[in-house]
Design a protein that fits this description.
Elements lengths: L1 H11 L2 E5 L5 H13 L3 E6 L1 H4 L10 E4 L6 H9 L11 E4 L3
Parallel strand pairs: 1-2, 3-4
Length: about 100
Amino acid sequence: MLDGLEEAIKEKGYKYMRIDGTVTSEARHERVQNFQSDEKIVIALLSITAAGVGLTLTASSTIIFAELHWTPGIMIQAEDRAHRIGQRSSVNCHYLIG
């Protein structure tokens, strides 16, 4: 799913960052810092299990889940990455269910 979304993002020419299970913790931290500080990075493409805990993504204003986890608490944790101290705007969460 992430690979397909990444292809579409690249085709549209959006600047983005990606975190999945292959990204080291050091690289995750660097990518999050870039997302938080670079207004040109408009998309954070994240795996729920790889990015659901320990990240601060308060630069986000919209979250779209293209995958669901079978444990509701994992989904709540993923939502909470944008609902952190320092968040200045409303955050809308959308779930794509097909």
